Protein 1
Amino acid sequence: GALAGKAQGIYDALNDEEKEIARRIFVSLVQLGEGTRDTRRRAAIERVMARTDDPKQFRQVIERFTNPGVRLMTMSAVGDEETAEVTHEALFDHWQQLNEWLDKGRDDIRFQRRLDETAQLWDEGHRLDDRLWRGLDVDLLKNFYKRAKSGMNELQIAFYEATIEAEKTVIEAERRRQQEKEAQQQERERQ
């Protein structure tokens, strides 16, 4: 309970923008349990920071929770990549605010993780169109973007934009093909 009290006290002292940043950070540091309890997860800071975040403000929020007197989060570096993780999993059991975020957002959290992994693979694969989403996934992505674009990182938004552009290209090609088919049909009927 003491850790949860510290976390809630720090959170309550944040302004609204900082609270949203804190929510995103902590949610990103939880591995959702599938029929088991949630556990901690290490996350790359650059993949947690949203496109709309002010980097200085983002860093200040992290520092509030990593402060040596608090240490609710631990920072480390793997190569060039800076990562964070929750220091004590007891926080998952006792911090009611965190549990509310997780309970309300499990589907979106899962979807955003899937999006993040796919966008990462797309980026590593030279951003080829064949790695973009199609069909139902595009509809899910559009809906997610409407709900959560302010929490999406640069890469996720780039993936979204490329997916939408590729879909438009496919739709336009299909429209042209259909027009050509109709023109050919009309030409045959005139003969």
Note: Helices lie at 2-12, 16-28, 45-48, 55-66, 90-94, 96-124, 136-148, 154-190.
Protein 2
Amino acid sequence: LPDFFSSEEFLDLKRRIPESGGNNQPAMVVDTGDVAENGDHIYEIIYGHCRHEACTQLSNEVINGQQKTYPFLAQIMHKDTPMTVRAALTHSENAGRTATTGWENAKWYASLIQTNVYSTCRALAYSIGENENAVNRYVRIVDGVDPRIMNLVFDERNLSLTSLEKAAKFKQKHEELFEGRVQEMVNSKTK
């Protein structure tokens, strides 16, 4: 997959921001309660990563010897906002996006379970309106990925969930053969 920040969709967003004088659709951030050395508050972006990147890139560009600042408009949530609310907002903002891959969604679901934002895949699926079986499958795939395979991948957004699932099943049935093949790939990468 290409870098999203060089995609036509992102470049179009970046083109529209100067036309409107900044991003006019607020992102959502959480005040972490931390303060940088310069005294600025530190925020975690819940959604609006692309708008933030576009405003940052535009603000760093010098055109005809001039540099203009493009403010990043965001709503601020209190740091005590429950993680479940943050997750629901993130999901609703990103639902249907073509730039988010199955692997990225699967990793996000797994992280929500691993960090106990949700105690079960059922609770997660119910909260964000996803199919429970799909969420279970995604989390199982992420949990079953051999870290050596991850180290072989240049851009993990290219990973196919079906291929990872097949690799995990192959490892269960033919562990010795799996180990040999993974070692061959690891050795060929280090050459």
Note: Residues 34 and 42 are 5 Å apart (CA to CA).
